[in-house]
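Weekly modeling sync, notes
Attendees: S.R. (lead), two postdocs, one rotation student

Agenda item 3: backlog of single-chain predictions. S.R. asked that every request posted to the team notebook include the full sequence so nobody has to chase files. The rotation student volunteered to paste the first one in as an example of the format we agreed on. Action items at the bottom.

Example entry:
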Amino acid sequence: MQKRHTFNTAQVMRRAEELIEASSNRYRITVQVANRAKKRRRLDNDDLEEGGMKAVMQAIVEMSDELAQPEIIGD
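Predicted structure, as returned to the notebook:
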């Protein structure tokens, strides 16, 4: 049986596009998202087992929420 997720993948994709558009370097923002996801995965090992959002998606959501802070995506 497939688990039902409480998040909208279209919204996560839109947020990812916003992050990429706001950044001057696409590679750098991708690496930042990956590093944050890796850090989150280490902290929350059983996150997926509880039906939560994947670490990469959670990192995208967090970073898009922080767009107002230029040090997150700044050069």
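Discussion: group reviewed the output briefly. The chain is about 65% helix and 0% strand.
Action items: rotation student to repeat for the remaining queue; S.R. to check formatting next week.
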